Amino acid sequence: MKSIRYIFVAAMAMMALNASALSDYRLGLCDNSQTLSDKSITLGGKCDLLSAAIYLSGEELAKVAGGEFTGVNVGLNNTFNVSSITGWIRTELDGEDLVSSTMTKESSPAFTKGWNALKFDTPLKIEADKGYYIGYTMQHAKGLGVAYMAIQTGATAPGGCWTNADGRTWTDNEQMGILFLEALIQSENIPVRDLRIIDAAFDHEVYPLGSQIGLDIKLQNMGLDAVTGFDLTLSCKEAGISITRDIECDIPYNERYTTSQKYVLPDMDVNKSYTFTVSIDKVNGEADQFDSDNVRDLAPLPVIEQMFERTIVYEEFTNEFCSNCPNAAKNLKFMLDALTEEESEHTAVVCHHGGNAFDKFTQPCDQHYYCFYPQNKPFAPAFMLDREPQSNGAPIFQLTNYVNLLERARKRLAEPSYYSIDVKGNWQKEESKVVLKISGIANRQLCADPRITVYLTEDGVKPYSQSGTSDPDYKHDHVIRAFNATWGESPEWSDERNYSYTCELTYPAGCKPDNMEIVAMISNYDEGNVGNRMIQNASKVALTKLGSVGLHTLKVNGVSVRTEGNDIVAAGDYDAMEVFDLSGNAVPATGLASGIYLVRVSSGAGTETAKVAIP
Known about the structure:
Blueprint: E1 5-8, H1 12-17, E2 25-28, E3 38-42, E4 49-56, E5 68-76, E6 82-90, E7 99-104, E8 114-125, E9 132-140, E10 146-152, E11 162-164, E12 171-172, E13 178-179, E14 181-186, E15 195-202, E16 207-208, E17 213-221, E18 227-236, E19 241-251, E20 256-263, E21 272-274, E22 277-281, E23 295-297, E24 301-304, E25 312-318, H2 325-338, H3 341-345, E26 347-353, E27 382-385, H4 402-413, E28 422-428, E29 433-441, E30 450-458, E31 479-483, E32 492-493, E33 498-506, E34 516-524, E35 535-542, E36 554-556, E37 559-564, E38 567-571, E39 576-580, E40 586-587, E41 595-603, E42 606-614
Parallel strand pairs: 16-24, 25-26
Antiparallel strand pairs: 1-2, 2-14, 3-10, 4-9, 4-11, 5-8, 5-14, 6-7, 6-9, 10-13, 11-12, 15-17, 17-20, 18-19, 18-22, 21-24, 22-23, 25-27, 28-29, 29-33, 30-31, 30-34, 32-33, 34-35, 36-37, 37-38, 39-40, 39-41, 41-42
């Protein structure tokens, strides 16, 4: 539904005392609390005129039934080369002006930057159920071929931006934004109770069963009386849900108000989307006088079983010819040391010896990752975090300091993942080989081409000849010793949600197993877009623990729950953890057979149950 901005110009005291006073009202489609901003438009041919208009329907004008148009209010942010501006009202874009008013640089008042009220000598009666075009025409100096309109960008409305730049043809430029343009109106029929919904949205794109979801609602009081309360209803007909709350507030006339409500929704079918509706009623205990803008359908809400705790991957680009790389490595270590124990468990690092040069530690995969750089122009040191694209579309960013690395890490760690990833396998020590089985769940498929990439890394590796340091004890960490594939390999999917993957990695002789770690990740692969190769989740396990540790971590009631081999363990502040099989029988948390189990965690925040898989 189109948004209407409807502003009373007279003093608040006058409104409260005399709602029928003939004072100017502002009625438009823009948000006139926004700062005026410009869009340029090319004038066609030798035209030196620019006309623009919005359309107000009869339904939108019903609130001022029986009133009169007293003028046009035009927002200007750039008056360069403008000699005059004429505000007008028409019933057809190409029709005659029903009424008009002109301002020049020399008139009194003269037009200026900001809002300009072009008042009519004789008001125009507003006819019932009739729509009108509210517009203006700007006269420009000849020969420049360009003009500027004040437009609210980032928002659109039907009929919000009609333009005529050649003196002949009107164009619907709704995609450009909404014109800063309003009708000035006098009326005796302004409502006293009129609360409207500006926007409403859930604070998450999906809903994990049993979790809490927020609903953010932005409202505006369009009536003369201050709003002290209203009923807010969240409903879904398909799911049989209707939740009504009495909201207390204090919203003066024309003020905007935002409320955030938290809900734990009843059970719904998993892997299905539901459309919810938010509505408002009983404004100050009585019916809203204009309720056409009191209902808003929300974006479809997919329901999933659960979200998973995220493990992030920092990828550093370094090489032994880089004199600044030792300092970058030091900052990376500072960041890792600053992490909490739990954060550290969920942070993995892989170093690619590449960028602007290769060295003796460079792996074949490193030679292909130059494409992650902006415009394929490599440098070192450099970093990626979960291969998330930066503002330039490429995932690579330059180091500023360890605090920046830490802030990025914590922000990403706070985002739960739709994917789990478990690592199991065995270490064949005599053959310097690991055999891995990687499996997991996708509660929402974000990847068009999901891939599994596995690195085997080593810490404490002595350099051959590192530039930029004279420290005899300097060592390389997170050095890649083996990997499965440059861009990962596709897992097998037993259904739409469950995947598995196996691989073997052989590492070179001379490596120190106690310093080695397996880092596995699931990410998207898009051959034509490096910005669409984000890592969705990862896991890491020390080589020497392989065969006894599988990582499948999720948050249950704020507590970290994960699998370690055939055990289920919890970490955090909680009172009790209970494990049940799918028949509801209590079972011990250790020595479990492969399968799905229910884990119930109780804490001061309450009790919550989630499913955990033992691969």
